[in-house]
Each structure stands twice: as structure tokens, then as C-alpha cells.
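Fig. S4 source data, part A: sequence.
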Amino acid sequence: MAKLYFNYSTMNAGKSAVLLQASHNYRENNMDTYLLTAQIDTREGTGRIASRIGISEAADTFAPEDDLFTKISTRIAQGKLASIFVDEAQFLTPDQVWQLANVVDDLGVPVLCYGLRVDFQGQLFPGSASLLALADEMREVRTICHCGKKATMVIRQDGTGRVITKGDQVQIGGNESYVSLCRRHWRAAMRAGD
């Protein structure tokens, strides 16, 4: 039975690597997959899922105005899919999360979403909030804070390492912009950044 999965964590936990490995495992067994990533994330070029460990793969993209049920239905018409993988799922709109749930329910194809749970201010992304509400199964991809505890939060920093406490929820970046921390060290960093 197909399910909607949400695999979440902070930055630098290896979500994209896990996604790429899972897709590879399907394909190695002659089962086709469909990869999607947010059009807004162009760090490795448009339509590319890449991991910090050096693996990457081309993917179709989604923008906020896209109807993912229609996009996936069109792709399925070209050939059977064993699974759909969505990277940067925090950038999904709530409507798109419902569209993915409809893919699972109406088309019978599993959808595995990978993304951040919260932003640098500790707030849920709209896509993540909807996935937390609708996903059949949720899995945490874990990483650690510099103290060794599980990292559940992320700070944003400028080019000099100064903590940024205000700003737009979305700013595309990697290790140069974000650091994953446990809640205690996140609170301390946010206080120091004020």
C-alpha cells in the first residue's frame, strides 16, 4: 500500500544523500523513480539534487504554482513509477502537499518527501507543517550539534559568522549560511545575535 512519507531534519543531516541512495536502490532493481526538487534551489544548478558528500542526480523541478498531481500523472503516463522522491519539501505549498497525498491515495504510488522541519527562527515551513499533518509516516534524519547532542534547530549566519535573527524565511544557502544546533545552543546563539 502506497504511503506519503516525510523525512525531516535540520541542515547538513544528509537528507539528499539518503534520498539519492533510496532512489538508486529502486533503480538498481529495475524500478523507475521520479525525482523532484524545488526550482528555487539552484545551488547545484536548476533541477539537480546534490549531497554534500558529492553525489548528485538530475531531477524535475516544482514551483509554487505547479499542480503536482497533474505533473506526476503526466509522468506516470510515460511509464510506471515505483516511487516518487521530493527533495527540499519544505518549499512545497500546503496545496501541493495535498496533491502529493492525492497521488498516494488515487494513483497508488508512494511519495517520499525530504526537507527541513523548521527555519532559522524555529518556525515551521508551510510545506513542512502540512507534511507533519498529512504524512502517513515520518522519519527524522539525525545530525548532531557541536556539543554532541542531537541537532534539531538551525541558525543563519552572515559571511563573518554573525548570527542573523531576522529576515525572510527562505534564503538559499549551505554551510556558509547555516549551522545545525541543539535547542540549547540555538537559544544561546539567537540571544547573542540580538
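Fig. S4 source data, part B ends here. The chain has one domain: 4-142.
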